[in-house]
Design goal:
- The chain has about 300 residues and is an alpha/beta fold.
- The chain is built from 9 helices and 10 strands.
- The chain has helices at about 5-10, 20-30, 35-45, 50-85, 105-115, 135-145, 155-170, 235-250, 260-270; strands at about 20, 95-100, 125-130, 175-180, 185-195, 200-205, 225-230, 285, 295-300, 300-310.
- The strands form 3 sheets. It has a 6-stranded mixed sheet with strand order 3-6-2-7-10-9, covered by helices on one side. A two-stranded antiparallel ribbon has the order 1-8.
- A hairpin with a 2-residue loop joins strand 9 and strand 10.
- The longest helix has about 35 residues, at about 50-85.
- It is globular and about 70 Å long.
- It starts with a helix and ends with a strand.
Amino acid sequence: MSADEATAVAPVLSLYREISRDDWARLASGLTQPLSETEIVQIRGLGDRLDIAEVSQVYVPLSRLLSLYAESTKRLGAETADFLGEHDTTTPFIIGVAGSVAVGKSTIARLLRELTSRWPGTPRVELVTTDGFLYPNAELERRGLMERKGFPESYDRRALVSFLTEVKSGAPEVRAPFYSHMRYDIVPDAVVTMRRPDIVIVEGLNVLQPPPTPNDVAVSDLFDFSIFVDADPDHIAQWYVDRFLALRRASLPYPARACPGLRELALGCAGLPWGARASSAPGGQVRRREGKFGAGRASSAGGGKVRAREG
């Protein structure tokens, strides 16, 4: 065999493992799709095009992969405690889900919560959004940050890190603040309570952001598996405009139901020159680098992708 022939047949070495939608569908063979069409409609966000085929072919096998990771981590923790002669204090497996506004990360986080909870090894799954760690409106006003709400500086990063540290330390009960999208503010007397679930999914814009200084703890340092939901920027822009137009239509007949300023914001954003509707695009893919995975978000508006990494 010549050198050229050997090069032609040799596997291509890469830091990533590329998994196409067809490959995901092959991995899904033999796996039960536990959700009904009605449940999928209830899970998907405003304007999302998630359908039962995409759930079956992409997210069911991805959820199985995540469940296997969580089960293996739990088993390792129990065996380590047994070897050291310690009480088993296995802690929840934490998954971080990040991505742009309007890319579909909230829908994916809700979907993964439902799917991973259907696997026998991980029946107890909780979802926390970083909205609960926004500073209250009064504090944002005091700091002059109200116009920056949703940007990194508007979040109580220290409180989020403290919350996740408690979860990862095995605290029997941990509480997170609750954010109301109807009030557009933190609800003072409401909390989200967790009691050592099998998996905790943390969803938010900034959860994979580097720490503010090299000596600080990054939020993602406390994750066991990280997912970044990605898509073509033109598609994201169009989804963003479509969603705000839908919110505008919903809020016009009932302005009191909308959060303050939403109607004006929708009108303003709808006029942004972001171009024409995105055409169809190839399906998503999975990349892996030392435990880093991703899955395709193959909606009819264009093929986004979810990049994920272990740790």
